[in-house]
Q: What sequence folds into this?
């Protein structure tokens, strides 16, 4: 089983300029102008769809009285923070063309161990244990993929299944809700200047991941690896180490998401991972169809998360059955993968 790269290759340098770039020494042509317009349309199609969906539900008779209320907007922002951080965890290995199916289960495991430790009375220790659990899972995934050469999909699917068993062993299938520190619960429920505090934390995490991927050599190496692993290896990149690091970062981010879930709900739900994986995957793949089409990116991911959130929230307010959200998320995942693959090939000129 192989994963198809969705990150585009960079422009080709030739004598006299950069082919397809801004500085090729030639006057603008109608063809290039048309291409630039198409690029803009691709980049901003999903943000426009997000705005249109919001306008529709704000004006629709079935939802106009509830959709734009402060309480509902706070639910929209705060309620998606956990999914968004899990999607960010997926995004890092995805940039290197690796899939981590275990991030949802890792979030659940981090939540369970953090909540269990906090129930003993130590908030700081609980936070550290939760993050450490995520780092350990990430290291195990990295070891299996890079040292034993197991395909990432198979390796992380196996890890996900094992973690589900560990969670059930730890909790007995019962949520951990006793003696969770009030300060953590307040973080998940209170607002700051009208914005949920958990949403502010999401912004901090997203900015950190954005900086890592877009403004550091490490991020450029990941995109190069995702675009063409053979070329990346030939130019001297330590591809195994890069891939291993993405799984460790993914594990830590997933554990942070689990801790935020504890803050949001006031406890650790043993079925948390099942609820997070599909919407997070849908958002991660849709990110490659927005803002920077053809490659996964943080801006596109946030747009995708809240586009799906607005759709699900609006349909729920309109009285749609709960199973409709499964149709929305599943359809978005299929569309996201298809668009990411198509745009990646288009950028590479295939």
A:
């Amino acid at each position: 089983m192989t994963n198809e790269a969705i990150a585009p290759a960079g422009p080709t340098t030739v004598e006299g300029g950069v082919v397809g770039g801004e500085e090729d020494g030639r006057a603008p042509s109608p063809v290039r102008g048309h291409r630039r317009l198409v690029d803009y349309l691709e980049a901003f199609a999903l943000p426009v769809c997000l705005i249109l969906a919001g306008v529709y539900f704000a004006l629709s008779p079935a939802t106009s009285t509830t959709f734009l209320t402060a309480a509902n907007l706070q639910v929209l922002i705060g309620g998606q923070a956990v999914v968004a951080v899990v999607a960010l965890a997926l995004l890092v290995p995805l940039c290197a063309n690796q899939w981590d199916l275990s991030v949802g289960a890792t979030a659940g495991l981090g939540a369970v161990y953090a909540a269990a430790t906090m129930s003993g009375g130590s908030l700081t220790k609980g936070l550290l244990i939760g993050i450490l659990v995520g780092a350990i899972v990430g290291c195990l995934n990295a070891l299996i993929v890079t040292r034993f050469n197991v395909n990432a999909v198979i390796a992380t699917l196996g890890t996900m299944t094992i973690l589900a068993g560990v969670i059930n062993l730890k909790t007995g299938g019962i949520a951990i809700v006793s003696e969770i520190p009030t300060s953590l619960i307040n973080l998940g429920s209170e607002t700051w200047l009208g914005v949920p505090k958990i949403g502010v934390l999401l912004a901090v995490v997203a900015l950190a991941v954005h900086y890592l991927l877009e403004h550091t050599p490490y991020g450029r190496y990941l995109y190069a690896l995702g675009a063409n692993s053979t070329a990346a290896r030939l130019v001297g990149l330590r591809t195994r180490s890069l891939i291993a690091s993405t799984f460790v970062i993914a594990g830590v981010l997933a554990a942070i998401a689990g801790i935020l879930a504890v803050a949001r709900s006031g406890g650790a739900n043993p079925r948390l991972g099942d609820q997070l994986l599909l919407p997070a995957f849908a958002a991660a793949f849709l990110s490659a169809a927005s803002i920077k089409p053809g490659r996964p990116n943080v801006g596109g991911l946030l747009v995708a998360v809240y586009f799906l959130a607005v759709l699900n929230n609006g349909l729920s307010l309109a009285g749609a059955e709960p199973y409709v959200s499964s149709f929305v998320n599943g359809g978005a995942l299929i569309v996201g993968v298809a668009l990411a693959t198509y745009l990646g090939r288009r950028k590479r000129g295939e």
The mean pLDDT is 86. DSSP finds 14 helices and four strands in the chain. Residues 138 and 248 are 4 Å apart (CA to CA). The chain has one domain: 48-348.
